[in-house]
């Protein structure tokens, strides 16, 4: 869920090599939270109001940071083997 205050939840535990379907419900968009970036995976997604699904596969274990396009609203993927 996306609101003007950030992401809820903002931390996810994932498994290496298992495809992810990240369902995002953008309830309140601002100039900052209109896009999500995952620099470690070279991903950037523009958000629209309502529900959308982002798909990707984490290929290596570790802590992967993601955020709004400005880097001010952080989130974390914890990728396990």
Give your account of this protein's structure.
It is a single chain. By secondary structure, the chain is mainly β. It is 0% helix and 56% strand. The protein has no helices and 9 strands. The protein has strands spanning 2-3, 6-7, 11-15, 20-26, 35-38, 43-46, 50-56, 62-68, 74-80. Strands 3-9-8-5-6 form a 5-stranded mixed β-sheet, with no helix packed on it. It has a two-stranded antiparallel sheet with strand order 1-2. Strands 4-7 form a two-stranded antiparallel sheet. A hairpin with a 5-residue loop joins strand 8 (62-68) and strand 9 (74-80).
Averaged pLDDT: 95
Counting helices, strands and paired strands, the structural category is mainly beta
* Strand line-up of the largest beta sheet: 3-9-8-5-6
Q: What's the story with the biggest beta sheet?
A: 5 strands, mixed
Low-confidence blocks of residues = none
User: How many strands?
Assistant: 9
User: How much helical structure, as a percent, in the residues?
Assistant: under 10%
Strand content: over 45%
Order of H and E elements: EEEEEEEEE
Number of helices: 0
Cα Rg? 12 Å
* End-to-end Cα distance: 27 Å
The rough form would be described as globular
Question: Could you outline the blueprint of secondary structure elements for this entry?
Answer:
Elements: E1 2-3, E2 6-7, E3 11-15, E4 20-26, E5 35-38, E6 43-46, E7 50-56, E8 62-68, E9 74-80
Parallel strand pairs: 3-9
Antiparallel strand pairs: 1-2, 4-7, 5-6, 5-8, 8-9
């Amino acid at each position: 869920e996306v609101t003007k205050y950030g992401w809820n939840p903002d931390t996810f535990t994932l498994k290496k090599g298992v495809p992810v379907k990240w369902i995002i419900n953008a309830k309140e968009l601002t100039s900052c939270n209109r896009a999500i970036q995952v620099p470690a995976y070279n991903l950037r997604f523009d958000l629209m109001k309502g529900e959308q699904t982002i798909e990707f596969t984490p290929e290596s274990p570790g802590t992967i940071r993601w955020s709004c396009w400005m880097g001010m609203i952080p989130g974390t993927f914890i990728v396990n083997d």
